[in-house]
Design goal:
Layout (H helix, E strand, L loop, with lengths): L4 H8 L3 H9 L6 H13 L6 H8 L4 E6 L5 H16 L3 E6 L4 H13 L4 E4 L6 H9 L4 E4 L9 E4 L1 H14 L4 E6 L10 H21 L4 E6 L4 H12 L3 E5 L2 H13 L9 E6 L12 E4 L2 H16 L8 E4 L2 E3 L5
Parallel strand pairs: 1-2, 1-3, 3-4, 4-5, 5-11, 6-7, 6-8, 8-9, 9-10
Antiparallel strand pairs: 10-12
Helix pairs in contact: 1-2, 1-3, 2-3, 5-12, 8-9, 10-11
Length: 334
């Protein structure tokens, strides 16, 4: 059975405050006494009572994280980075998944607040001023990642539109006559699709400006990534009679298209061009190497944790919106 701080103090012949200083590396304490207490704590299997400490400080030492799922490598990498950063600060992470269900997301947020987490990082499927007011009513520090909800909610993301525009321009400079943008369904949905709308805007703007500046006859098309999008992409490649490239709003869409095309005897970088978005880690195992936009997810997560802890500690912050740069990664598929 684990010993208490009081028992540890009695064993070492010191006060409980001295034990606290030794185990938390705070305050003034004799180095030899500190070493003695730490050694005895390890020998006896002492574990601090975080619940009791939390009650005293009004903290639980937990932050909540609400995201879509863990099947997408982007979110898996994000959660790993958040967990690492939280651990450095002595915190644990409570992860919940909303599965793109708006009501489920609200329920999970309320449950996390009921459990008195000290703060929340959220990748939301909801949006708008009414939802912003709901988040503020929870009276818990919240930082959002990726999908912007509304002004007034702390937000960390990347330059989605700028990156998409630059990638589209890179494709056009390669001389492709037809460019197809592949993204999740954006119409007839109440879900928050901010990220992919930003990427679509960057694509559209680049094509329009290219046509005006180059007097080009390049054609463009948007495919909604739902049930039959890989088959549709293949049909567009066969029917167009033009040198065709695909720009996908997520690496997973690009990989699915590449897999399908390979089954039809078409090779990326030779028979068609293709570019992804996010730079997920599994691309290291894919041949040919996918051209993609590197989304610094670990840095986004780190900045989100940093901002969240500022809010939790009521520290002044110059800006509660953090937008990070990202760039295109060379590959073999253009």
């Amino acid at each position: 059975m684990a010993i208490t701080a009081k028992e540890l103090a009695e064993m070492c012949g010191v006060s409980r405050m001295t034990v606290h200083r030794a185990l938390t590396d705070t305050g003034r304490i004799n180095p030899q006494t500190k070493e003695l207490i730490q050694a005895k704590a390890k020998e006896c299997g002492y574990r601090p009572d975080l619940l009791a400490r939390g009650l005293v400080k009004g903290q639980t030492f937990y932050i909540g994280v609400v995201v879509l799922d863990v099947n997408n490598r982007y979110f898996s990498q994000m959660l790993s980075a958040i967990g690492t950063e939280a651990h450095k600060r002595g915190y644990f992470v409570n992860i919940t998944l909303h599965e793109e269900n708006k009501e489920m997301e609200k329920e999970q947020l309320e449950r996390l607040v009921d459990y008195h987490v000290d703060g929340i990082i959220l990748s939301s499927v909801n949006q708008g001023e009414e939802y912003r007011d709901f988040l503020k009513s929870l009276d818990t520090p919240i930082v959002t990642i990726g999908n912007k909800i509304a002004e007034g909610i702390p937000f960390v993301s990347i330059q989605e539109k700028k990156a998409a525009k630059e990638a589209t321009e890179a494709i056009l400079r390669k001389g492709y006559e037809k460019i197809v943008f592949v993204c999740p369904p954006l119409e007839q949905t109440e879900a928050n699709t901010y990220v992919h709308r930003q990427r679509l805007e960057g694509f559209t703007e680049a094509v329009e400006q290219w046509k005006k500046g180059q007097e080009s006859t390049v054609t463009s098309l948007v495919i909604s990534a739902k049930d039959a999008y890989v088959e549709q992409a293949y049909e567009e490649l066969l029917s167009s009679g033009k040198r065709t490239a695909f720009f996908c709003a997520g690496d997973i869409f690009a990989l699915e298209i590449m897999k399908y095309m390979a089954g039809k005897g078409k090779r990326a970088g030779e028979d068609y061009g293709i570019v992804g978005f996010d730079g997920i880690d599994i691309l290291d195992y894919v041949t040919p190497r996918l051209c993609t936009i590197y989304n610094p997810v670990e840095l986004v997560a780190k900045e989100a944790v940093k901002l969240l802890f500022k809010l939790m500690n009521s520290e002044p912050s110059d800006d509660e919106t953090v937008i990070l740069n990202c760039e295109m990664m060379d590959g073999e598929t253009l």
